[in-house]
Amino acid sequence: MTDISHTLQAKADQLNADDIAGQPIIVQIVDARLVRDEKQPIICDISGGWKPWKPCLTVRRLLSRAMGMDLAGWVGRWVELYCDPTVRYGGQEVGGIRIRAVSGISEPFTMRLSFTRGKKKPWRVIPLQPPQPPSLDEVMESTGVDATQLDAYLASKGKPPVSEMDDSQRATTARWLASNAGKVLGGAS
Fold first, then answer.
1. In angstroms, how far apart are the furthest CA atoms of the chain?
2. Is 83 in contact with 18 (CB distance < 8 Å)?
3. Which of 39, 141, 157, 165 registers the highest number of CB atoms within 10 A of its CB?
4. Which of 116 and 75 is assigned the larger pLDDT?
5. Chain centroid to CA 73: how far?
6. pLDDT digits (tens, 9 = 90+) for 131-165
7. HEC profile for the chain?
């Protein structure tokens, strides 16, 4: 199968609703920062190779209720994003990114927030169970890296072999290997 999804994304410096139309995504916030932009003052870098996400005011209000007012508390949390085709901008339905679920909350909550001038509606957010990351063995299998190759690469970097790693080291190595298998297979440093 030849995946063409990368050819369907809009050219922009941020994730937009069309990028996730028809396919809600579950992503981790890997960084969140405040910038000088009145309309989109928060930028969230998210996992999965997606462009940065700039939550709209309604979503920022939901996120602050779920994760607090300190952006440092947002980092590491998981969110389910989806395209809501009914989002209006400039009086027209243009679609927008909404959240359905957030990790780190124990029960669902609902907030009544504006959706158009003078009108409010309830927005519901449910708890999200963070996905389990693949194990090192699963990453090795999916990338075609075997233990001998990985151990040789690790040894060249002064790192212990896989057999001597604790669970935390194996998890860190799995995350690294998922995006760096070419270095191990090609011998690049």
1. 64
2. yes
3. 165
4. 75
5. 15
6. 888 899 999 999 999 999 999 999 999 999 999 99
7. CCCCHHHHCCCCCCCCHHHHCCCCEEEEEEEEEECCCCCCCEEEEECCCCCCECCCHHHHHHHHHHHCCCHHHCCCCEEEEEEECCCEECCEECCEEEEEEECCCCCCEEEEEEEECCEEEEEEEEECCCCCCCCHHHHHHHHCCCHHHHHHHHHHCCCCCHHHCCHHHHHHHHHHHHHHHHHHHHCCC
* Phi/psi at 3 (5° precision): -75, 125
Residue with token string 């970097």: 157
Mean pLDDT value of segment 15-25: 92
61 pLDDT more than 90: yes
Torsion angle of the four alpha carbons 130, 131, 135, 140, in this order, in degrees rounded to the nearest 10: -130
The residue assigned the tokens 């959706």 is: 115
User: By the 8 A CB rule, do 65 and 119 touch?
Assistant: no
Burial 11-46 (b: 16+ CB within 10 A, else e): eeeebbbebbeeeebbbbbeebeeeeeeeeebbbbb
